[in-house]
Every structure is written in C-alpha cells, then in structure tokens.
C-alpha cells in the first residue's frame, strides 16, 4: 500500500524545493515540516465539531488568533475562527455580513473586479449580488467608484491586500472609510498577504495600510497554509469584535438530535490542520517569520529585476508582496513560456486574458525559491518561446467559440470541444497533453462563460472512476 501511495504521487507537482510557484508555499525548513506532519497525524482523529470535547483544539486555535492579533493591529476585542482555507474564510465573511442585516431582502456586496473568485462563489452560494467595480490603471481598486457603488442593499465592501492576480494592495483606508460612513462592513482579503505584509513593514518596506489600524475595517482573512507555511488547510477569519462574528455562527435545535452549533461551514473537521498550523507557528515564531519574509521578498525583488532586464516580458505591476505577474511585451507567447518552464522543472501559473488585459504568467514566490535558478530557466524559456513563435489558433474556430452559448450545449458538443482543445483523444480518453500552450490559447480565445463550461465538463469527466476499475486490494504492501 505504501508503494502504491508513492506511485500515485509520482505525477504530482513537488511541494518542496521552491519550484512550484502556485498552490504550495515552501519555507525550506525540513525540521519544521516534519514536526508539522507529526502534529497533523497526532490530531487527525480529533474532531473540531465540539470544543468542549476536544479542548486542545480550542486552545491551539486561540493561540493562533492571539499570534495573529499582533500582526493585524487587532484590538483586545478581536476574535477569530480557524477555517479550512481562504475560500471558506471569504465565504464566511460574506455569509456573516448577510445574516447581520436580515432586513435587507436583496443583499449585495461591492467588490473590485480584481477580487478573488471566492467572493463570486459566495455570491452564488448565499444569494448576495456582487456589484463589480472596475479598477484603475494601476490595477488597484478605485476607491471613489467603490464608494459610489454602495447603496441601501450593500451589506459588505471587500478590498484585497494584495489582489491575487496582480499582487498590489487596494487603497483600503479610503474604501473602509466609505463603507463606515454608510454603516457597512468592510472585509480585507489578506489571505495571501496577511502573513507577509506585517514583517515586510518591520523590514522597512513601504506597505499600504490594510490592518485593523484602519478605521472601518471590520474583518480580515489570512491564510496559515500560505506564508505561515503551515500544512493544508488552515486559514483565519478575524473580526474586530465578537459582535461582528456572532452572525457567522449556525445553531439549530429544532430536530430530535443534538443541538448543532458550528462556527464554520463544516461541522466535523479534523484537528490535524489545527495542530499542524499551531506547531508550525510555534516552531517558526516571530523572528523566524521575519527571516522567511526577508528571503521571500529578496527573491521577489531579484525576479522582478530579472524580468525588467529580459526582452519579451514586462511586469504587470510592481508587487507589494510576493506575487509577481508578467505579460508578453513583444512577439512572445506566455503560454509557451509556461510550458518551457515546466520542461525545466519550474511550475508557473498561466493567467488567461481578461477584458483588455493580455494573458500573463503568475508567480507566488516562497522563501525557498532560488531566484538565480528561476531567472536562468526563464531566460532559456523565453528564448525557446520566441523561437517557437505564436501558438496558432484558427480564426474560424475563434469566431465559432464567440457564438456558442454554453447553456445550449450538451454532452456531445462538450466532448467535441474537449477534443478540439486537446483535453481528450480521438477515443474520448481524457488527460492533459504534455504541452498546455495550445489548450490555453484556445481557452484564451473563448468567452469567460464558455471557458467555465468547458473546464467544468472536463473536471466532471475526470472525476469519474473507470467502469472497469475495482477497489484496490489493501492486503498488499503495508
């Protein structure tokens, strides 16, 4: 069985080494990683459903919230909840804001167009209309436009610290003030920056205001499994006061069973992520995070300088944290660059075009990332992409894609689209091709709704067991 587990993991992206620049975050601290795994295993069977039954989990969660208080300028009244990840933290921020205003029958929230997709997921789940406001040319939220979009239906205003796509912090002071003036909650999504920006400020770097020190900020989300380098999945949703958190809770006694009481979207939740996060934060500590942040930011600076000096690529924005986005500045296909980087052992995330913005490549730089090695691979990859030329996409196919309505397409049509995009073979078998540039180029040509529908169809077909498969034997190698 252990051999089978190793074999299953063989095609996964590496989680250590600093070369996977999305999805995982590597501190490069093997001893801390080993300690965290031991903690996860020791508490994997504990259940966070009832803190009176497992008080150890409550104690660790309170310790994590107390540690975070010093990072976000939290008042003594600040409270927090440990969730499964940034998306759940964002969902709860929206749900709590909605339920705090039951008199608003058609609630809405004001968000910049760069807000994380998790908030659109929350809008879909909770019936809160997302009022999307265009950002300025610097990719930061337009505070005046955000203020103008607030009306009687608004229950929440959201800003990012930083935005995922471009790595810049929104003007939170102005946005929070506008929300407060209308009596509306303001949430700061610092899922990816909340464990970097505090130490960046201590290192003397310019950091725009984003914490509870900003009047009007009512809640903040920050992920522990990103730049706190804890195991998946652990995030914190922090509220300025207990009164602001209270609508987040769900309780139900109107049935014959136990009275259900939940602080999160989950009921039963393993204590493993709580213990893993607690052990990681305790082991690294304030001084350790200061050093890890210094290393990650220095690597980010070197990578940005290298991109500036490289013909063919340009920065989308000067990053406020550790997120870097770059687009083609000339005859270069960024999707091919991503493929070439993968060939050299580096995973960089492609971002498709949006509105008038071109496609880009995206990096989340960790403390373990080697900037010299990255830039050497990037230089080679850009040269290879220039030599290869643009990925051809038939103009007739592009025109067809623009006319398709996903709502009218059936399984047969989606099968044809998956085959045309290189996500299925002639026999219908699904899988990712060795090179993703042709797939990404075709997706990039499709309208967003069609992209969504095609990828949903692909995931739906991937997540089906083979009809000929059977349950694996557990009597083999243990």
UniProtKB/TrEMBL annotation:
Domain of life: Bacteria
Pfam families registered for this protein in UniProt: Pyridoxal_deC
Necessary cofactors: pyridoxal 5'-phosphate
Any one GO molecular function term: transaminase activity
SUPFAM superfamilies found in the cross-reference section: PLP-dependent transferases
The entry's keywords: Aminotransferase, Lyase, Pyridoxal phosphate, Transferase
UniProt entry tagged with the keyword NAD: no
Keyword Zinc recorded: no
Alphabetized InterPro entries for the sequence: GrpII_AminoAcid_Decarb, PyrdxlP-dep_de-COase, PyrdxlP-dep_Trfase, PyrdxlP-dep_Trfase_major, PyrdxlP-dep_Trfase_small
Family designation: Belongs to the group II decarboxylase family. Sphingosine-1-phosphate lyase subfamily.
Entry protein name: Aspartate aminotransferase family protein
Organism per entry: Nocardioides aromaticivorans
